[in-house]
Description:
One of its GO terms (biological process) is phenylalanyl-tRNA aminoacylation. It catalyses: tRNA(Phe) + L-phenylalanine + ATP = L-phenylalanyl-tRNA(Phe) + AMP + diphosphate + H(+). Tetramer of two alpha and two beta subunits. It is found in: Cytoplasm. GO terms for molecular function: ATP binding; magnesium ion binding; phenylalanine-tRNA ligase activity; tRNA binding. This protein is an alpha+beta fold. The chain folds into two domains: 3-76; 104-344, Bira Bifunctional Protein, Domain 2 (BirA Bifunctional Protein, domain 2). The chain has helices at 3-19, 23-34, 39-46, 52-80, 104-117, 132-135, 175-185, 229-244, 296-301, 318-322, 341-344; strands at residues 122-124, 129-131, 167-169, 194-203, 214-224, 250-255, 260-269, 285-294, 310-317. The strands form two sheets. The protein has a seven-stranded mixed β-sheet with strand order 1-4-5-9-8-7-6, with helices on both faces. A two-stranded antiparallel sheet has the order 2-3. A hairpin with a 4-residue loop joins β6 (250-255) and β7 (260-269). The chain starts with a helix and ends with a helix. It binds phenylalanine. Phenylalanine is lined by residues 172, 174, 219, 257, 260, 289-292, 313-315.
Amino acid sequence: xxxxxxxxxxxxxxxxISEAETKKELSELKVKFLGRKGEVNQLLKNLSDLDPDQKAxxxxxxxxxxxxxxxxxxxxTLKLSPAPRDWLDVTAPGxxxxxxxxxxxxxxxxxxxxxxxxxxxxxxxYPEVDWDWYVFEALNMPxxxxxxxxxxxIFIDAEENKKMGKMVLTTHTSNGxxxxxxxxxxxxxGKTPIRMLNxxxxxxxxxxxxxxxxxxxxEGLVVDRHIGIPDLKGTLNHFAREFYGPKARSRIRxxxxxxxxxxxxxxxxCVHCLGRGCRFCKSGWHEVGGAxxxxxxxxxxxxxxxxxxxxxxxxxxxxxxxxxxxxxxLDDIRLLYSSNLEFLNQF
Length: 347
Ligand code: PHE
């Protein structure tokens, strides 16, 4: 055995290892070259026949060959192995995780809040299950008054309170008017005018394409000295422009509410024809809700002197005014509460 043989053996081994295509082939090659009866060991056995000088030199070469073959086998095995699980390719494009978004009505509530907060209104919340007193009686609607029929009320099966009457699911956010006067009235004299924005859930016994049993209203209430209709008109126009676009306008028409005097219905110009009249709106306007100057009896119920203070109030449904936005020609508002992701994902 000489150095040339050894070199041949090493090169031959490295060549066949690099050409191996399966792990099975590799393990066969391992036995063939490095196994107990393998080629390297065969040569090792012959070492004892050599003289000491040759013995040392050949031994070293044999060890080198053994190391080279072992390494080649290991590398090739790695190449043929599938990537381990925790392997990380930092250049791979990232995985995007599905992300949700706020419900369209929550988005509308936030937008409405922002518009009024910039005018100095403070958002408040009042009970969604409230006494008859705050929902009707204190708003100048005594028991058995026919005006109450407008609000298709759902009553709670609970004990009646002597002063406050029955408990109801709030039919409108106007229940916040007298509650806010009671809260703020103590600081009112001279100092803090009321600029309330009450947004809450309302409930009425009505369900069709334009009504859901549960819906949301927002209610504005401003009380101070010398508040009049121009203040109301300015506020409504400001809201129209901010919510529907710079060309939008508001319009008020005489109406009757027991808790405002005078009372109005509020319309916004149609976003498609800007008030000229089109297929979508017919008249050029969309009716959204009610407004008026706070009735003296309501101020009194809230503990304020109507000779000193006056105010305006307005209120209507978030769903209604949201679905009038440009591009949102929703013909069935029940869809908003259908939990249908295919529908909701569009917003
Ligand atoms: N609460 C009335 C409704 O639900 C709207 C309204 C609010 C009217 C404030 C006048 C003043 O229809």
